[in-house]
Amino acid sequence: TQLLEQSPQFLSIQEGENLTVYCNSSSVFSSLQWYRQEPGEGPVLLVTVVTGGEVKKLKRLTFQFGDARKDSSLHITAAQPGDTGLYLCAGAGRSYNQGGKLIFGQGTELSVKP
Amino acid sequence: DTGVSQDPRHKITKRGQNVTFRCDPISEHNRLYWYRQTLGQGPEFLTYFQNEAQLEKSRLLSDRFSAERPKGSFSTLEIQRTEQGDSAMYLCASSHYQGEQYFGPGTRLTVT
After folding, report:
1. Measured between alpha carbons, how far is B31 from A54 in angstroms, rounded to an integer?
2. Could you read off the pLDDT of A58-85 as tens digits, one per residue?
3. Interface size, chain A vs chain B, as Cβ–Cβ contacts under 8 Å
4. Which residues on chain B are in Cβ contact (under 8 Å) with A87?
5. Quick check: B55 and A99 CB within 8 A?
6. Which residues of B touch A33 (CB under 8 A)?
7. How far is B80 from chain A (nearest CA, A)?
8. Which of the two residues, A47 and B99, has the higher pLDDT score?
9. B104:A42 CB<8 A
10. Residue A98, SS3?
């Protein structure tokens, strides 16, 4: 069974601080997605990483896929109140038989205070 | 708006009643997924379709749950004889074949 462990589960910081969220597994994934979810809404796709060691930047957000494609991190620089939300990592399995279903971590609830 | 849509957004039902949810995917997407999310957790996979064929079902999908995608476009998820443990957010997502999944806004089910 593939599992994704996210840490920390909760994070409360002041505006302007930096933070990193981690997503770890003992399994290899063909790709990994990061989503952001607001209360009462569906997850919104932020980025997909596919290649081991890949780094992608989205404004103040930096995403990295581990060399072995088992882990990923999300780093936010100079966090703003608008970054508040639930951040989810989700891995897609390797084999064709897994059909592309996503395995989600339990999420990191981020609160950025002004 | 050409995103994934779900209806209804909220449903309150009494235990033992049947409920049905609808999902309309992004029009050119041939894959459609259903997930369930409980408070404080990430979404859990329930089932997925490629066109009209249901290709995989999770063990979470008990025999009270049934999903259809009759013409390869919209999909319905029915829960029969609802239980309080069925209370959750039901999420639908769509994608091109093994492409990135885009989620709808979800249907929040409350079973009283």
Report:
1. 27
2. 999 999 999 999 999 999 999 999 999 9
3. 65
4. none
5. yes
6. 100-101
7. 24
8. A47
9. yes
10. helix
How many other β-carbons are positioned within 10 Å of the β-carbon of residue A98? 17
Which pLDDT value is given to residue A94?
Answer: 59
Backbone angles phi, psi at B85, to 5 degrees: -70, -10
The C-alpha angle B14, B66, B34, rounded to 5 degrees, equals 95
- Give pLDDT tens digits for A84-111: 999 999 998 755 445 578 999 999 999 9
Q: Which chain B residue lies closest to A41 (C-alpha atoms)?
A: B105
* C-alpha–C-alpha distance, residues B64 and B79, integer Å: 6
The tokens for B80 are: 């029969």
Q: Three-state secondary structure along B68-107? A: ECCCCCCEEEEECCCCHHHCEEEEEEEECCCCCCEECCCE
The A residues from 48 to 107 touching B (CB cutoff 8 Å) are 48, 88, 90, 92, 99-107
Kindly report the CA angle at A31 between B45 and A17, in degrees rounded to 5? 95
Q: Count the alpha carbons within 13 Å of A82 in the hemisphere toward its beta carbon.
A: 4
Residue linked to tokens 């063909």: A30
Q: Which residue of B has its CA nearest to A95?
A: B98
Of residues A14, A50, A30, A32, the one with CA closest to residue A88: A32
Q: Most A CBs within 10 Å: which of B21, B36, B98, as the mutation test of the A interface?
A: B98
Q: How does pLDDT run across A16-39, given as a tens digit for each residue?
A: 999 999 999 988 888 899 999 999
Contacts of A1 (CB under 8 A, 6+ apart): none
